[in-house]
Each structure stands twice: as structure tokens, then as C-alpha cells.
Amino acid sequence: MTHGVVSALAVLGVVGQALVVLLAVAWLVARDAVRRLLWGYELWAAFVVAAVATGGSLFLSQVAGFVPCEMCWFQRICMYPLSLLLLFLAAHGDNRAARYLVPFPVIGGAVSVYHILIENHVVATPAACEVGAGCTVKWIDYFGYMTIPTLALTAFVLLIGFLALSLPGRAEAVATLPADG
User: Fold this and answer.
1) Angle at 58 between CA 120 and CA 69, to 5 degrees
2) Which of 39, 9, 38, 43 is nearest to 154 (CA)?
3) How confident is the model at residue 128 (pLDDT cuts 50, 70, 90)?
4) Is 162 inside a domain boundary?
5) What is the pLDDT of residues 2-14, one digit of tens each?
6) Per DSSP, what are the bridge partners of residue 146?
7) How many domains does the chain have?
8) CB-count exposure of residue 157 (10 Å: 0-12, 13-18, 19+)
9) Residue 74, domain member (yes or no)
10) Residue 17: which residues within 8 A CB-CB, separation 6 or more?
11) Closest by Cα among 24, 23, 9 to 54
């Protein structure tokens, strides 16, 4: 069962990366159309990403028995609050408050990039990372590059994208679901 769930998380990571590319291209080509298409649902999409990332990290440490390193903990600090906060904001349709959440995935993404560099021996391993499992341990390694920090980075980039889409423009004060309008 553990191998199946880890494989599913890796596949979700690849799907998430494809979604990042697709949204980026769509944003560059038809920015207003993308905003209209997702308006009212972008906080829900961000919540799903944060919830899957939180659940996945808890599964990997609590069920699969992978010991989180120090960098993993810093990434979790940035991800876990987003699960709850995005649920509350999405339920209330409060897009104005989403701007205050943007620093969480930005900092978490930076930590993920640093963790990937440590994991691949591009930068020296900090002394704190050598305690316990260590930041260079690749608990999972799918498709030749999909590791836990890569999964986290994918989630953080998706969150940055969905939060950016949720920010109200000058004309929109608060998002409402299309069914409410």
C-alpha cells in the first residue's frame, strides 16, 4: 500500500508540474480568459493543492516512516497553515485576504529549491542537516528527478499561481462563485 501511495504522489507531482506549465502558457496567451474561467474557484484549487501536500507529507512521515529532515520541517511550516487558512478563505470567498498568504508559498518554494540543491550536492550540506536522516537522503526518486523536495516545490509553485489568480483586480472587490452572481 505504501509504495502505491508514494507512486500516486509522484504521479500527482508530475501532473502538477504539467498544470504549472499549462497555466503559465495560458496566462501568457489569454490572461483575462484564464481569470474569468477560474474566478471564484482559485482559492478552492489552492486549498486542494495545500491539503494534498499536507496529507502527503503526513503520510510519508507517519505511515511510510520516512524521517523528515530539517529542510522538510521548514517546508511543512510554510505548507500546513495554508491548508486551514485556504479552506476558510475559500468557504467565505474572501479573495482580498489571499494576498496575505502569498509569502508562505514563496518562502516555502525558496526552501524547496535550497533543499533540492542540498539533496543533489550542488551546495554544501549544512551541519544541522547531517543530524538524523539528513537532507541528502532521497526517500523517493521517481522518473529520475521526482523527490520529496520536488513535490513540495511543485505544490508551492501551484499555490503561488492560484493565489496570484485569486487576487482581486481593480474592478473586482470580492469574488463570488458563478452560481451566486
Assistant:
1) 35
2) 9
3) low
4) yes
5) 777 777 777 777 7
6) 142
7) 1
8) buried
9) yes
10) 154
11) 9
8 A C-beta contact, residue 153 and residue 107 = no
**147 with 177: CB under 8 angstroms?**
no
Q: Enter the C-alpha cell of residue 75.
A: 517546508
Long-range contacts of 99-102 (CB under 8 A, 24+ apart): 99/163, 99/167, 101/163, 102/160, 102/163, 102/164
Neighbours of 22 (CB within 10 A): 11
The C-alpha cell at 88 is 476558510
**C-alpha–C-alpha distance, residues 161 and 20, integer Å:** 8
H helix count then E strand count, the chain: 6, 0
Query: Which of the pair, 28 or 181, is modelled with greater confidence?
Result: 28
Could you list the residue range(s) of the whole structural domain that residue 87 is in? 2-166
d(CA 19, CA 175): 23
On whether the CB atoms of residues 104 and 84 are closer than 8 A, the answer is no
177 — pLDDT class (breaks 50, 70, 90)? low
pTM: 0.78
Backbone CA torsion sign across 107, 112, 115, 116: negative
Residue 175 lies in a domain: no
Does residue 172 belong to any structural domain of this protein? no
